[in-house]
């Protein structure tokens, strides 16, 4: 590698004790954005409020006529599609809650230096496209296939490695009869917005965002495990740099609440007046439906059961929950904890790894309740 | 004021030397967002890429049937509108470049602690609505009117003052025959997205964003100058806290360039290969059309003239400029400077005030050009 590329592309690191957010982390935070938490009220997140994380630049695609998606590797019939060709397949629409694997990272101690999310890297959309398994059935996956590799058009350098963004899925996740993986061309009934992958992206329900490759250009079936940067270097759960680490896959359960009352502009602290309030929020898990949400209004000392709306038909979308709270003057810390049907739940102490991935520590919302006559 | 409100709502302050971005600034940066600079390529910014700054919460407005806009104060015929009533007026569409008054704040020394923008708090949209002067003509502005006060539905507390967001315009800006001020209900041919003011907002072409009141609920004509928080406390140019300060009004000229090449994920440094590149960008001013853009590729030592596209019919929108650059291996700093027809230009040293407002210091884009064989 050129010496100069090393100069601009440093190794991963942890922030020092009391080290504030740096210029590099801020440059990511000003271009990527989370869901403003009051927008948890929408069943389906308006596109501009859905969280966005782009590793490199958003490709400029003024029209999709010249876009080509290729399917190759260990298939019997390599194929090539323009976006319009995909609309000839039966359209499938799925409501999916998508969360960044790094959500919560900036709250960790020590803090992994990367995109500095608090808890807001989430959103829910209705994605329309073609089931990946239908495309791969037409291409004819050969025996001995192991991984399916997806390549996006976004190009950059990361820790010294120049790359197009690439991720893989195990072949059974990609082509199994139960597979809900989509090659999507629509979001909330409209074409994909540029920042969400115009003209084509992958949607992998239940998996963290890194798997949902945007600006999708190529699908290659391989007969050995994919070892690209985003699979083997990034997005691994490691406590020490030399570990191989476990891969980041499905979304761990999380509940978030709509911060009640109104905010202070600068501190974002919440202010309410005394009385009974209905706290509400959303909860999701990529592993199994959420079956229980507990709420604490005293920072985790005592817990009560929230009313969880029945899951309904949207297996991959967040569900709503509600909890009545009698607010009294003083300082309070609200928190909520989701548990899914497989028994996965949220920890009350931080789970920590060097990437700050899949960290589903419970949210804490400090609230000030004013005196009644104020 | 209640003691507890003081606890959550601090005075304005400046960051200390070497003080990193704090948790409070980060909480603003994760919910508000800028224009990813590669999106300067679009004439009209897709809504989810346009910068957003919300002081308090985004109001939840699932349908606009129950929304009421009132016009009162020093008018002969107080009026009330539902959003649908406004569509009975002739629709006007204007292409407008909108910039936050705090753009560039996080690059200042010392840094005012607030929304920590670098240079990306800008966007261009086509806003559709009714000229404010037509509504006020129907209401009949009385003699002696001084200000027109606009009230939004977003509610919060700021430096101890609980408030709905309010700003005023001088009556001649609001109702003059040349006035382009709109009460807008559409953005880029669709209803306003929630974060841009659904269902109604003010658009004040040429003025910084704080004047474009979102979630507009009331318009009141007054016979004395408006002295609300956002007019007299915030959004003033002051070097010392005790000064009255000048009001922030029209957008100062600025040029931004599309960062060339590709980025490093973490440092956001730009990487190019040797050869002739066409640098491109946008330039705008809220005072007069931009007539000149100069570019430097050596950090401001030497300057060349960029080719500026003719202004065309969109008086209030940014214009495109281009500049050919022969990139050679090594480190470079690119910068561009806009000048408008009234001679306003961009400073090469930071202009500073305690709010970090109307700061149009030139952008600096460090670029690494690799060796030819890399």
From TrEMBL, chains A, B:
Residues 58-229 form the Oxidoreductase molybdopterin-binding domain. Gene3D superfamilies: 2.60.40.650, Oxidoreductase, molybdopterin-binding domain. One of its GO terms (biological process) is sulfur compound metabolic process. One of its GO terms (molecular function) is molybdopterin cofactor binding. It comes from Streptomyces capitiformicae. Keywords: Metal-binding, Molybdenum, Oxidoreductase. It holds the Pfam family Mo-co_dimer. Residues 274-367 form the Moybdenum cofactor oxidoreductase dimerisation domain. This is Sulfite oxidase. Its cofactor is Mo-molybdopterin.
């Amino acid at each position: 590698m050129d010496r100069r590329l090393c100069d601009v592309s440093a190794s991963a690191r942890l922030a020092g004790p009391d080290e504030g957010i740096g210029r590099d982390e801020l440059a990511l935070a000003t271009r990527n954005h989370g869901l403003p938490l009051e927008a948890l009220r929408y069943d389906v997140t308006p596109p501009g409020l859905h969280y966005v994380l782009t590793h490199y630049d958003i490709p400029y695609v003024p029209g999709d006529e010249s876009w080509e998606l290729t399917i190759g590797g260990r298939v019997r019939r390599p194929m090539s599609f323009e976006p319009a060709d995909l609309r000839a397949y039966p359209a499938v629409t799925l409501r999916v809650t998508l969360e960044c694997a790094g959500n919560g990272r900036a709250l960790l101690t020590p803090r992994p230096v990367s995109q500095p999310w608090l808890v807001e890297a989430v959103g829910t959309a209705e994605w329309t496209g073609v089931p990946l398994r239908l495309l791969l059935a037409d291409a004819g996956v050969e025996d001995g296939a192991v991984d399916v590799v997806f390549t996006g058009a976004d190009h950059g350098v990361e820790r010294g490695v120049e790359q197009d963004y690439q991720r893989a899925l195990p072949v059974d996740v990609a082509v199994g009869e139960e597979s809900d993986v989509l090659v999507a061309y629509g979001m909330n009934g409209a074409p994909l917005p540029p920042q969400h992958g115009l003209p084509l992206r992958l949607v992998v329900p239940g998996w963290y965002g890194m798997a949902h490759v945007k600006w999708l250009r190529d699908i290659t079936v391989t007969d050995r495990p994919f070892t690209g940067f985003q699979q083997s270097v990034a997005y691994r759960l490691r406590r020490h740099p030399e570990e191989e680490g476990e891969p980041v896959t499905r979304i761990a359960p999380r509940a978030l609440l709509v911060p009640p009352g109104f905010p202070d502009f600068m501190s974002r602290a919440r202010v309410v007046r005394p009385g009974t309030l209905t706290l509400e929020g959303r909860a999701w898990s990529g592993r199994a439906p959420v079956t229980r949400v507990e709420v604490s209004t005293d920072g985790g000392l005592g817990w009560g059961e929230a009313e969880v709306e029945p899951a309904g038909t949207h297996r991959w979308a967040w569900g709503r929950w509600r909890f009545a709270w009698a607010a009294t003057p003083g300082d309070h810390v609200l928190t909520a904890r989701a548990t899914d049907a497989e028994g996965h739940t949220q920890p009350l102490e931080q789970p920590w790894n060097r990437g700050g991935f899949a960290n589903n520590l419970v949210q804490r919302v400090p609230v000030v309740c004013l005196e009644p006559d104020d």
